[in-house]
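Progress against Task 2.4 (sequence-to-structure conversion) is shown through the following example record, which the project officer requested during the mid-term review.
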Amino acid sequence: MSKQKAREVFSKKILERAKKDSSIFVVCSDSMGSAMIEDFAKELPEQFVEMGIAEQNAVTVASGLASLGKKVFVIGPASFYSTRAAEQIKVDVAYSNNNVKIMGISGGISYGNLGATHHSVQDIAFMRAVTNLDVLIPADGNQMGALVDLLLENENPTYVRIGRGEVDDIYDKSEVFKIGGSKVLRKGNDIAIFTCGQLVSRALALSDLLEVRGYSASVVDIYSVKPIDQGTIIDIAKKCGAALTIEEHSVFGGLGGAIAEILVQEYPIPMYIAGIPDEEIPNGTDLEVFDVIGLNQNELLEKALILIEKRL
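C-alpha cells generated for the chain above:
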C-alpha cells in the first residue's frame, strides 16, 4: 500500500490546474515550506501572493481577489486560520459569498511536538457553524486530488482540513466524490463507525479487529462534514443499531457532534464520540498523543464492544 502527503498532492494538483487557468490564485501566510507550495510560487509568481505571518490579511486579500472573479486558495496552518482569522472567514468569505477556499494544513494534532499552540482541535466546530461555508476533510492523497477538481468546479466558500504526514492510500485515483457525499468503505451489521481524515485508516483497522471477534462493522468516511450525507448516516445507523465516531478533533462540536445532532433527532441509538478530550494534551507526535488520549486500537476496540453489547 502506497503512502502520500495530502498537502503535497494538493500543491502539485493546484499547480497543474493553475498553469492552464490564470484565474487560479494561491495566497500564503509565511508557510510555503509547510504547505509544500514552493513550486507554485516559483513557477507562477504572478498568481501567488505571500502575506507573511498575517492570516487575517491573507483571508481579506483572498476575498478581494475572489470578488474580482479569481479562484483563490488560501493556505496555511489550520490552527491559525481557524482561530486568528475566524472573523475574516465568517465575514469576508462566507457572509460575502466569495469564492475562497481555506486550506488548513496540519489539521488536528499533526504538528505534534509543537504543542497546543499549533493544535487545531476546534476548527471543525467553528467552521461548520458558519453559514454558507462548506467543510471537507480528505482522508488520503488521492481523495485530496479529486477534491481539488471539485473545489474548482464549485464556487461556494469552503474550509478544507489537511493532515501533515504521509497516510496510506484508502482510495485509488479513479474514485469519484461529491460535496455533500460520503463513502461506505465496509458494510457490516453490528456497529457503525463514522470517521474522517487520517483516522479513516484507523477505523478500518478497528473493523478488522472486530471481525476477528465475530462482529461486522460498517465504516463510513464522512469526508464532507458540511454539507453532510444525512441519508447515509441514518440508513447505516438503522442497519447497525450502534454508532462510534472517531476523529482528530475535540469531542465537542466536530464530526461526532454532527452525527449526534442527526441521530438524536432522527434515530437515537447507543453512541460514543472518540476524539480529543477536554483536557491538556501532552506534546508528542500525533501517534504518541493518540495512544495517550484513548485513540489507540485497544481502547477503541473496548468502546466498540461496549456499544455492541448495548445494541444487543
